[in-house]
Every structure is written in C-alpha cells, then in structure tokens.
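Supplementary Note 3. Input sequence used for the single-chain structure prediction.
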Amino acid sequence: MLIVSYDFEKNKIRTDFSKFLKKFGSRIQYSVYEINNSPRVINNIKKEIDYNYKKRFSKTDSIIIFSSCNRCTKNAIKYGSAANSDKEFVVFD
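The predicted structure, written as discrete structure tokens, is reproduced below.
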C-alpha cells in the first residue's frame, strides 16, 4: 500500500494529479490518497510522477509517498469514517 500526499501551488496541476491518483486509489484526506494495488501498478505510478509531474514542480510543490508493508497496513489504527474503509458492505436500493 502507498499513502501519497501532495501539495501543488497551481490549481491545474493539483487537479490533474488528483484525477491521476483517483484512477488507482481512494482519497482519504483532501490531498492524501491511499493506493492498494499491484507492485507493477505502484511502480508505474512512481514512473508517471517522475516523467510527467516532477518537471512541472514550482519551488513550493511537493509529493510525498509512504510505502507500507502488509503487516504495517493491517496494524494501522483508523478512526471515524476511515475505520469503515476496509469493511465489506452491501448496499440495497
């Protein structure tokens, strides 16, 4: 699992990056995404950041990626709506 946190000065880059991350994971805070995916996809995300976003940085822009092993992910303590994100549920209409 990856936790990706970002901050971009320009709205266009921030919006593009958010849409990019949304394809692979879920937003857990305004500028923070959780990505549970295969190692290949995670590697592709990192390559895309290097290739497409890194060159567009201003002096104040940043992306921080935290990797978490399976054991660490299982030991994460979550509160509020985050506590329900790992639970399976069924919705009936």
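The longest strand covers residues 2-7. The beta strands are 2-7, 26-29, 32-35, 62-67.
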